[in-house]
Amino acid sequence: MKVRRIIGIDPGYAIVGWGVVDYSGSRFKAVAYGAITTSPDLPFEQRLEEIYDQLGLLFERHAPEEMGIEKLYFTKNVTTGIDVAGARGVVLLRARKYGISIGEYTPMQVKQSVVGYGKAEKNQVMQMTKTMLALPALPKPDDVADALAVAICHAHSTSSHFPLSPR
């Protein structure tokens, strides 16, 4: 059975959580995970450039074929949401330039996929992610665990034939 290499992304401009998993059949293996962080002292456009550049290095190092990314959900702070949307756009552009198939998922879809309940608590999702990937501890910061959960969601969703963007 073919092994699929998937990167999950939890977008942000201060912290971009990422997690690379291999998926085959119904088995997951965590390959690598971490966070891209940018300094608040940098102008916003330099922070975006840093995200773009660091993603390029990640894509070269881990060669994912597919990417799952969380869709934005915000209710109160529109200004922060707009900045996160800018960072999310940079992530989508970099993946597109690299030729990675992209799937986008709402927080509810991620929770449903990982826990089986779309209104699960964040800690439930984190614990299930840890269990599914046989991780020794919960990844920190939380953005990293979220990215791994998005990768799991993508694997489950694309196995169910949800549409992906073209390569």
Structure in words:
There is one protein chain. By secondary structure, the protein is α/β, with parallel strands linked by helices. Helix content is 47%, strand content 23%. The chain has five helices and five strands, in the order βββαβαβααα. It has helices spanning 44-62, 78-98, 107-115, 122-132, 142-159; strands at residues 4-10, 15-24, 27-37, 66-70, 101-105. The chain has a five-stranded mixed sheet. The longest helix is centred in the middle third of the chain and has 21 residues, at 78-98. Residues 161-167 have low confidence and may be disordered.
Produce a short descriptive summary.
The chain has 167 residues and is an alpha/beta fold. It has helices at residues 44-62, 78-98, 107-115, 122-132, 142-159, and strands spanning 4-10, 15-24, 27-37, 66-70, 101-105.
Which percent range fits the helix content? 40-55%
C-alpha end-to-end distance: 22 Å
Sequence of secondary-structure elements: EEEHEHEHHH
- Strand arrangement within the widest β-sheet reads 3-2-1-4-5
Helix count, DSSP H or I runs of 4 or more residues? 5
Number of strands: 5
Annotate the secondary structure layout:
Layout: E1 4-10, E2 15-24, E3 27-37, H1 44-62, E4 66-70, H2 78-98, E5 101-105, H3 107-115, H4 122-132, H5 142-159
Parallel strand pairs: 1-4, 4-5
Antiparallel strand pairs: 1-2, 2-3
Helix pairs in contact: 1-2, 3-4, 3-5, 4-5
